[in-house]
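Hi Q.,

Before the meeting this afternoon, I wanted you to have the zinc ion prediction in hand. No need to reply - just skim if you have a minute. The sequence and ligand are here:
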Amino acid sequence: MNSKRTDRKSSLAQPKETKSANSRKKKVSPTNPKENSSKTYLPPKNFYLTQYMRKIIVQIGQTDTFQCHVCPSKPILQRRSVYGHIKSSIHEISSTKDTNAHEELVTKINELGDHNTTKYKGNKEETVEDKRNYLEFLAFAMKENFSFCQISALGKFLKKLIQNKKTSFFNLFNFDEEEISKIATNVGDVLIEELINDLNSSKYSVSIDNVTVTGKSICALKVKYLKEVEDENNKMSKTQICNRIIGIEYLNETSDAPTLCNIMEEKLFSLSDRIKENFIGITHDDASVLSGSNGGLVALLKGIS
Ligand SMILES: [Zn+2]
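Predicted structure with the ligand bound:
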């Protein structure tokens, strides 16, 4: 992900970058007549805002790229991204050794921002850089086929992490698929436990649907219930509709009502008597195997409950 980000950043930054690099070349080439001017770059005089910044943001050779020596991953940055990076929470977390120098530098960057980089007067915190990073995040998520709902949830979750300064794990873990899969197995147990608690304490309905995928018949069971949750913004409790998949089962050739009834028994009612009592209704398409008054699933469920 890291390399992807850098790639995209540089391609995004290109149009303006080329322009400033060109104008730079004209200034630089007379002082270095022997060197190939296209490969030479000196940062502008006012680029380094403090001595501390000079120490931590080191130019890579004579290119328009810099390396942050404070962050553990030693990220490589385009010049235009440097200020944004210094203000980022990831960098802030890594700056605990020189908090004062860091804050002084951020103040100087913010002063610049008021004149140069702030686009919207309504919100002085929001720079052009922020706007670009936000769009980059959205573009990434959309490219990965996240739904709007998922992007929103992920964004809000990350925001909370950053506000609470709980982001140092980003530098420590690699987010390997294999590792995530192993963790998911354990997280799954915790989620099921939470679901069981929910179903024990509130009435719920079940929706059941069968689908055939590449010749295999699959039955999905979903529960719907109301849950009191705490609103993150105002700390008030609010009622939320929860939709959770409780089980997916491969069916044999026969997906008759007793089979479905057994699945409900096994996946739901066997969890506890309380859960069996809290079951108040079922939604389904109108397949006769489900709705048939004579031996349909609904009729069978009425029998057992
Ligand atoms: Zn950094």
